[in-house]
Amino acid sequence: MGTLRAETMGRGRRTRCGPPFSALPALRPAQAALLRDWLRGHAAERRWQTLLDQAGAERLELADELLTLLLACGALQTRERFVHAQWRVERVVWADLAALQQALGLATRQEQSDQRDALAARLKTLAQQVPWLAPAARHCLDARVSDATRQARLDLLLALARWHEEQCFGLQRDFAQFARGHTKAISAGEWDWLAQHVALQELGIARFAPLLWLGGTLTLGTARGRIDVAAAGLCGLPAALLAAPVQVQAPQGYWLIENRASFERQALAAAPGTCVVWLPGQPPTSWRQAMAWLIAAAPAPARISCDPDPAGVAIALTAGALWDAAGLPWQPHAMEAAAWRQAPQLPLTAHDRDWLARLLARTDLPAPLRALCLALEQGGHKAEQEAWL
């Protein structure tokens, strides 16, 4: 700490400063917290009263203490006025605002500008790469919101893109868990914003009670009466219905189909004894619980048909795990390369290739699915089962 110097600026006014600034002294946590509050803005000069207001009544003594400390180390200069026989601080001028911000772990004006530019570039890239997210991305760019809000919205849009690519399905709380690790992590305002710019229902993000869609042979006995799925053709039952004391007449086998159009087509044409079930992408907990109860109450082997792509393999494994847990056999069906070689195909993405590598590294990958993964890896393309199933 050096000697303070005062320079008279005119009648009743002066500037006080310390030695040339080099570094902050050791600060107590409370002092560092207050200085961090003062340095969040980018003005090189601040009114002292404004800084006192930021400190609040409970930190006024701390503010005076911090001012003296910062002045003594040269971190700031004070502009003062002689009033009622004493010098009063009117304004504070930071010696090196960027250095002070960096010392306190705050972004400088240039760093914030660079971050803002990088954020805008990411939003523009997302709009180009994922056209169905373009309206939301453009709104993020145009809206007058804080950088933190813009970043949070971008993160949600990126999570939506992953959710779609991985063919997930579930309630809003399932997406919140997927995106941010907690079922209540997305605020009501964020849900409103998403709903204004993205067709959430079409992405498999539902607001209401989940349904289990069935077709073919299955008969349920409930307290309110008998449900014959075959008589209805297709039947959407609340997942919560599939629990005791409902009684089930077991089919000869289950056929799980991921693609919705393929499910409806095959459900209406199902052979007697086959219960056809729509497998909604990466199935949510409610679906898995309902199916686990169903196969426990009415055990039968399963065939599982998913898109021949990495997501489809992962979905088949997730569903098949229910049969593994019940000690029942299951097998992939109509997913082998011969079934889709003549169907329209899309090139694998970098995300697909990374996913394939993880799948092929699994020691428990069933032989038919391993063969499919190798065919996808070698051919470099994937397909959608609606074209042939």
Automatic annotation (TrEMBL):
Highest taxon of source: Bacteria
InterPro entries reported for this sequence: Spo11/TopoVI_A_sf (IPR036078)
Taxonomic classification: Bacteria, Pseudomonadati, Pseudomonadota, Betaproteobacteria, Burkholderiales
Protein name: DUF2399 domain-containing protein
Organism: Comamonas faecalis
